[in-house]
C-alpha cells in the first residue's frame, strides 16, 4: 500500500474463512474479500473506503493452506515441484457512504522449478514455509522456488498493486506515486502486464449490490 502512496489504516476483520463444499477457488477468495470489507465497514465512518483481499494457493483445483508442520511443508513442496500451480487473489473495495462494492479477481500461473530434496529439507527446517499457504514464499532469497514467472509478482505475494490501483480509481482514489514502477523496483521484477493492468485492459471488475 505504501508503494502506491495511499494513506491507510489497518483493521482486523475477524471472519470465518472456511471454504464451502464444492466452492470454486475464485468464488472463495472473492467471497472472503467482500466479507472482510463488509465486516470492518460495520464500524467505519461514512466517508471511508474499505479495501480487503484474500489469497489462495491452488493446485489442480485444490486450495492448499498453511502446512500443519515441517513434514507437511515437505509434502506440499514435493507436490508443487516442477509444475505450474495458480495463485488466486480476490480484491474488494467498499465505499461506506453508499455501500458501493467493486471486486476483482487475479489468477496468476506460478511455475515451480525442479528443486532438490535437499533444498526442500533445508527450507522446511528454516521455518519460513510454516506460515505460508502452499508452504513457500516466492520472495524467499535463498530457496527461490519459482521459475520464469510472467504474471503479477505482487499478486503471488498476496496483493496485486496495479489491479488495486485500477480498482481504487473507480472511486476517484488515485495513487500518489507510480505504483507499477515502484512495485517492480521493490520486487526486482520486470512485469510485462503492469501497464495493461493499470489501463484496465485486464480488469475483471464486478459490481456488487448497492
Structure characterization notes:
With 210 residues, the protein is an alpha+beta fold. It has one domain: Maf protein (Alpha-Beta Complex). 32% of the residues lie in helices and 20% in strands. The chain has helices at residues 25-41, 70-80, 117-126, 153-157, 161-169, 179-187, 194-199, and strands at 49-59, 62-64, 84-95, 100-111, 205-207. Strands 2-1-3-4-5 form a 5-stranded antiparallel sheet. The two termini are 26 Å apart. The mean pLDDT is 94.
Q: Describe the sheet with the most strands.
A: 5 strands, antiparallel
Number of helices: 7
End-to-end CA span: 26 Å
Strand content: 15-25%
What value does the Rg take, in angstroms? 18 Å
What is the CATH-assigned architecture? Alpha-Beta Complex
The arrangement of helices and strands along the chain is HEEHEEHHHHHE
Uncertain residue ranges: none
Structural class: alpha+beta
Q: Would you give the CATH topology?
A: Maf protein
Widest sheet: strand order?
2-1-3-4-5
CATH class value: Alpha Beta
* Spatial shape: globular
Describe, in short, the structure shown.
With 210 residues, this protein is α+β, with helices and mostly antiparallel strands. Helix content is 32%, strand content 20%. Strand 1 (49-59) and strand 2 (62-64) form a beta hairpin.
Q: Strands, helices and their partners?
A:
Layout lengths: L24 H17 L7 E11 L2 E3 L5 H11 L3 E12 L4 E12 L5 H10 L26 H5 L3 H9 L9 H9 L6 H6 L5 E3 L3
Antiparallel strand pairs: 1-2, 1-3, 3-4, 4-5
Helix pairs in contact: 2-3
Amino acid at each position: 500500500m505504501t508503494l502506491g502512496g495511499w494513506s491507510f489504516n489497518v483493521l482486523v476483520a475477524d471472519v470465518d474463512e472456511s471454504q464451502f463444499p464444492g466452492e470454486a477457488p475464485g468464488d472463495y477468495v472473492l467471497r472472503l474479500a467482500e466479507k472482510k470489507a463488509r465486516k470492518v465497514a460495520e464500524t467505519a465512518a461514512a466517508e471511508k473506503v474499505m479495501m480487503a483481499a484474500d489469497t489462495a494457493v491452488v493446485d489442480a483445483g485444490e486450495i492448499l493452506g498453511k502446512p500443519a508442520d515441517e513434514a507437511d511443508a515437505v509434502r506440499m513442496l514435493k507436490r508443487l515441484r516442477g509444475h505450474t500451480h495458480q495463485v488466486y487473489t480476490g480484491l474488494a473495495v467498499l465505499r461506506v457512504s453508499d455501500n458501493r462494492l467493486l471486486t476483482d479477481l487475479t489468477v496468476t500461473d506460478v511455475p515451480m522449478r525442479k528443486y532438490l530434496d535437499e533444498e526442500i529439507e533445508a527450507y522446511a527446517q528454516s521455518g519460513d514455509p510454516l506460515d505460508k499457504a502452499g508452504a513457500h514464499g516466492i520472495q524467499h532469497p535463498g530457496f527461490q522456488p519459482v521459475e520464469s514467472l510472467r504474471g503479477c509478482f505482487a499478486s503471488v505475494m498476496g496483493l496485486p498493486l496495479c489491479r488495486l490501483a485500477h480498482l481504487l480509481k473507480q472511486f476517484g482514489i488515485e495513487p500518489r506515486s507510480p505504483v507499477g514502477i515502484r512495485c517492480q523496483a521493490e520486487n526486482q521484477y520486470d512485469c510485462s502486464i503492469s501497464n495493461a493492468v493499470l489501463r484496465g485492459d485486464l480488469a475483471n471488475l464486478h459490481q456488487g449490490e448497492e
